[in-house]
């Protein structure tokens, strides 16, 4: 079961079929060039299925980020560790309708808190293309430090941004996970 996380404005939930058109539109746009795109609808389907499958294989993964009031999909944020990745990652990709409002920051903090407080992660990274200024700015806002360069076999040069340790994360951020209900609140 994929847990549901909630923040003040957002619900992080499992991908559903109703998300596919928005997801395929995003993956088919030029906005995904830094992610290896644009992609066809068939490729987008495989990628959305991979999001669900990652949960089955790893026990954690990425969520659809949705507006808490309307349930409109705004992007994909969460935990990612495919074969060949250097370390577990906190990853984010927002659809155009989710940008510019602090959505990625709010969702990524919820994902990181879940990784640290529920899964017991002691470290996390974010792999970011050096030309992706918005993601670099978000990593800095989250307290990440840049480190080594990582060469991805298809995406090329990426920077490893290291998240602060669980002990260094703001103690004022509370996170409550209720496994019996499958929900968490930040």
Automatic annotation (TrEMBL):
Domain of life: Bacteria
An annotated Gene Ontology molecular function: acyltransferase activity, transferring groups other than amino-acyl groups
Keywords on record: Transferase
Gene3D superfamilies reported in the protein's UniProt record: 3.40.630.30
Domain (N-acetyltransferase): residue spans on this chain: 9-145
Coiled-coil ranges per UniProt: none
SUPFAM superfamilies: Acyl-CoA N-acyltransferases (Nat)
Protein name: Ribosomal-protein-alanine N-acetyltransferase
Organism: Yoonia maritima
